[in-house]
Design goal:
The structure holds two protein chains of two kinds. By secondary structure, chain A is α/β, with parallel strands linked by helices. Chain B is of the alpha/beta class. Chain B has a five-stranded parallel β-sheet with strand order 2-1-3-4-5, sandwiched between helices. The chains are: A alpha/beta, B alpha/beta.
């Protein structure tokens, strides 16, 4: 046997390849040290020399504490190397902050491992990662977050004070115009009464707006309280109808009311339910002309509990997907021109949603531009006494069961692997609701407020299923999904994607140039192709889709337009084909076996010569059962967040768990058998 | 005749409220701040008090607490009037001993309903 070259007792694999280990060692980008039992440096890699600006002569065979004139003689490091590692043989994520004379103050994350007994026994590997910039960044983010929260509180306080200051003079305007109205009536001076009515009407409108602002600032300051009372639903509906009937008729609308007379009572905050319904109904009346408005009320049993569902539908101007996304945001009307045409502050829907949410319910919308809208309020028939956590400001008061990052490392608090559902969503309301729905079904629920935290928790919890929001600020759902699927241990965990609406952004976020949904219509396709005009036909286009029939159809369409088409059935095949022929345009399906569209797009974007090639993302809008089978554990389901009933949501989670139970929860048995 | 004491420092509010209540047949007594309100209540034993909360010298909360601590005056119902619509204001007023609470700007039908509700038990006691 050849003498070991780099380490004592090198494995037969490296024998005869003297530089093999050192080359491997030098390829690693993190600084690495190999120490012997006496903590003498046995070897170091190139990254170590580069990072700490030291030479091989100053390093090898020195005690670690002697390195760089003693700059490594650090108490915390002594603890790690002399106390912790000998006892546990592996230690990860040891954070060391130290003033290194040559490179300044750095935060290093250390992993240490004693090599296995046997040929390398007693050698110790120390890997370092410089996380100084990351830590600094985190500090800045925390500061920025605090500043943002302070400014939000200041804003709420300002709004509360301002609305109070506005109410005082308004009080006089309204009061005196009403006194005058009364006196004009007594003195029989009808010529003044119309103008006085306008003054008091405008004053009341202004008062309504100020009250909305006050309500919103109360919610944002976490000061909105519920006054629960028991009331007859039919009476409430009558009251709403009588208020709204005149407005509805003014625009020539027909008002239809469906409310079972035996609908009974509910326990909720009457004035908030009333205000929410009035908001929806008066919007419907405002945005509909010579059409019909329907107000339906029904009692439904969901999750073994009674819910009251109010539905306000109209045949008015409707909303497109873009508008729906912004609809419930304060101070945002669907269209800036709406404000001019229809008036209003844009606070109504935002308040309606907040009111419903603090009563443990929600309001959803279904609408098609030009064809009317349906707004649905769902409230528990008996609203629980304790409102949901802080709805207004994210994370100020966390719901009790949200995993506090500080306790995450406490192994005692971790549920057994494969038993819990991890909810990843940046919206605290959504997290709380998911927690309730799933908790009621007997699932242990853990939540993460962002992608980074979600991935970390997923690794720690090994959940049975994950629900994942697509749009999150720190790391979008698709990236989270890629990270989850890249992790061997998490690859098989079913992921349920929750998406607000089918949104082009997810394609663009990947670096896509354009976006289309399946089935692709010919006109849309030819529009896209024309936009990315081929200068000298025939231009090469690459079609990446695992569906052969779709490729055939698209190829025919593209060839007719003068493109020369090559095909690939997945991302990996596409990358290979691109090495031979650089296409001018790529059509990309997102969900494919071997290498999916997300990974492929990322690879293309990292390649300097390919970076500029436009990619058109094509994906299924609604996944049918065939699509689901094709997903093959990648994305279990794509749900539409808005309007998805909790029943269908639960069904998906149950499905996902059933599917995953077979391979995941009984692997031991399979091995034994 | 039913007498109402209005404790209010704002001249316009005092003027409007007293004119509208007089028109509805009430006799009105006015006071400009809390201590004057207590004195007026003791002197003329009104049937009801409308108490603004933010007042100079002695505020409405304190004046109400004093009124409710006085065995001669505690049975007079007090309705707090405040431009603050925050829920805590309502609670603070009720804790101080106010019998009801209403917000400004005054909604006359709503205020009248509250006044009548508080006067009704007295009327029943008196009428038989």
């Amino acid at each position: 046997m050849t003498e070991p070259v780099v380490f004592d007792g090198a494995s037969p694999l490296t024998a005869g390849m003297p530089n093999f280990s050192q080359d491997l060692f030098d390829t690693v980008r993190e600084p690495l040290l190999i120490l012997d039992a006496a903590l003498r440096v046995h070897a170091a890699n190139r990254a170590f020399y580069d990072t700490f600006q030291v030479t091989l002569a100053d390093t090898e065979n020195r005690l670690i504490y002697e390195l760089g004139n003693g700059q490594w003689d650090i108490a915390a490091l002594r603890t790690l190397l002399e106390d912790i590692v000998p006892a546990s043989s592996v230690f990860n994520d040891f954070e060391l902050e130290h003033d290194f004379p040559s490179i300044g103050r750095r935060v290093m994350l250390l992993n240490a491992r004693k090599l296995r007994q046997g040929s390398h026994a007693e050698l110790l590997v120390l890997a370092m990662e410089d996380i100084t910039i990351r830590r600094r960044g985190e500090g800045e983010i925390a500061k920025a977050k605090e500043a943002a929260e302070t400014s939000n509180r200041t804003k709420s306080l300002f709004l509360a004070n301002m609305s109070h200051e506005l109410r005082t003079p308004l009080n006089a305007i309204l009061g005196y115009s009403e006194i005058l109205q009364e006196e004009v009536a007594e003195l029989d001076l009808p010529q003044f009464s119309a103008d006085l009515a306008k003054i008091s009407g405008a004053g009341k409108h202004l008062l309504g707006l100020i009250n909305d602002i006050l309500d919103l600032s109360k919610i944002e300051a976490g000061k909105m309280e519920l006054h629960l009372e028991r009331f007859e639903i039919a009476e409430l509906i009558n009251e709403v109808v009588s208020t709204i009937a005149i407005q509805a008729r003014q625009n020539g609308n027909n008002l239809e009311v469906l409310c079972p007379p035996d609908i009974g009572v509910m326990v909720a905050d009457l004035s908030k339910v009333r205000q929410a319904l009035l908001n929806l109904a008066s919007n419907a009346a405002k945005f509909t002309n010579d059409g019909s408005i329907k107000l339906e009320t029904e009692r439904q049993v969901m999750d073994n509990a009674d819910w009251i569902v109010f539905r306000v539908s109209d045949t008015g101007i409707g909303l497109d997907a873009d508008q729906i996304v912004r609809l419930f945001q304060p101070f945002t009307q669907a269209d800036a021109s709406t404000t001019r045409k229809f008036g209003g502050t844009g606070l109504g829907l935002s308040l309606t949603r907040r009111f419903c949410q603090i009563m443990s319910g929600d309001v959803t919308v279904h609408s098609v531009g030009g064809e009317g809208s349906v707004f649905t309020i769902k409230l528990p028939a008996v609203v629980p006494d304790q409102p949901l956590g802080d709805i207004g400001i994210e994370d100020r008061r966390k719901p009790a069961a949200v995993l506090d990052p500080a306790t995450v490392d406490d192994v005692e608090s971790l549920p057994a692997p494969g038993t819990c559902v991890l909810v990843i969503d940046d919206d605290p309301v959504q997290r709380e609701l998911m927690q309730r729905y799933l908790g009621k079904e007997g699932f242990t629920v853990r939540t993460a407020s962002g992608g980074v935290e979600g991935v970390r928790l997923a690794r720690q919890l090994a959940p049975a299923a994950i629900t994942l929001d697509v749009m999150m600020p720190d790391m979008d759902g698709w990236s989270v999904l890629s990270a989850l699927k890249a992790d061997r241990a998490l690859r098989d965990v079913p992921v349920i994607m929750l998406t607000m609406v089918d949104d082009p952004e997810r394609g663009f976020a990947l670096g896509a140039s354009d976006y289309a949904t399946k089935p692709v219509n010919r006109v849309r396709l030819s529009q896209i192709v024309k936009k990315h005009m081929c200068p000298n036909p025939p231009c090469p286009v690459l079609l990446v889709d695992d569906d052969a029939s779709f490729r055939d159809v698209t190829r025919a369409m593209l060839e007719r337009e003068g493109w020369s088409v090559s095909e690939a059935e997945n991302g990996a095949a596409a990358l290979k084909s691109m090495q031979a022929h650089r296409p001018s345009l790529i059509f990309l399906d997102l969900i494919m076996p071997v290498m999916n569209g997300f990974e492929f797009a990322a690879a293309v974007r990292h390649h300097p010569e390919w970076r500029s090639i436009p990619i058109i993302v094509i994906t299924s809008q609604d996944l049918d059962s065939d699509d689901r089978r094709r997903l093959n554990g990648y994305v279990h389901t794509i749900l539409q967040k808005e309007g998805a009933s909790r029943d269908s949501l639960l069904e998906q989670v149950r499905d996902a768990l059933t599917d995953s139970n077979t391979p995941r929860l009984a692997p031991q048995k399979t091995l034994d058998a | 005749m039913t007498t109402i004491l209005i404790v209010e420092d704002n001249e316009m509010n005092r003027d409007m409220l007293s004119r509208r209540l007089q028109k509805r047949g009430f006799e009105i007594i006015l006071a400009l701040e809390g201590q004057a309100g207590i004195d007026a209540a003791a002197a003329s034993k009104p049937d009801l008090i409308l108490m603004d909360l933010s007042l100079p010298v002695m505020d409405g909360w304190q004046a109400t607490q004093r009124l409710k601590a006085d065995s001669d005056l505690r049975q007079i119902p007090v309705i707090a009037l405040s431009a603050h619509a925050m829920e805590t204001d309502r609670e603070k007023a009720l804790q101080a001993g106010c019998d009801d609470f209403d917000t400004k700007p005054i909604d006359m039908p709503r205020l009248m309903a509250k006044i009548e509700a508080l006067l009704a038990p007295r009327a029943e006691r008196i009428s038989p």
